[in-house]
What does this fold into?
Amino acid sequence: AQSVSQHNHHVILSEAASLELGCNYSYGGTVNLFWYVQYPGQHLQLLLKYFSGDPLVKGIKGFEAEFIKSKFSFNLRKPSVQWSDTAEYFCAVTSISGGYNKLIFGAGTRLAVHP
Amino acid sequence: DGGITQSPKYLFRKEGQNVTLSCEQNLNHDAMYWYRQDPGQGLRLIYYSQIVNDFQKGDIAEGYSVSREKKESFPLTVTSAQKNPTAFYLCASSVAGGSQETQYFGPGTRLLVL
It folds into this structure.
């Protein structure tokens, strides 16, 4: 069965530190890749997505992610985090299942940024 | 204001009681989804519907039921058969099919058992 692994369950950083959240998936076919973010008390929001083309994808709020097909990875990065980036981050992968695009989520990474 | 609305924000269930969570969207999306979110487990798919009057079980459908009588609405009923219903429930919608399908989420309903 397809799965998505997020290596870090909790990450604690100071403001201005660089961020990299790992995401690996197990699926050999064509994939669509997503990062969603859930700020405290808010909706799950789309941060960025990759369908095809340039493997380096830029999203909202200065986030970017790189798709490395050979490593089955889609890591999320931000060069300098802010306190407002405190949230839970979910990696998700689309897998074709029974004719529809099933979205499979990782367990999530809780990021806490200290001022 | 376009989007997905879920109500109520908090819901309390007594033992043996069925409760229904509402999900409405005005995005003209064909497909709608229900997920359950538990701490440390990400989101798991309960049910999905790609078109009105049709829906399919997801990975954890036991103890839940849905209906899709209107394009805009996809209510979820948590039945008394669901033994561990305490969770955060998220509804999503998308334009069905296509290679670039993206799901958008509502604000969620937190269900607690009394």
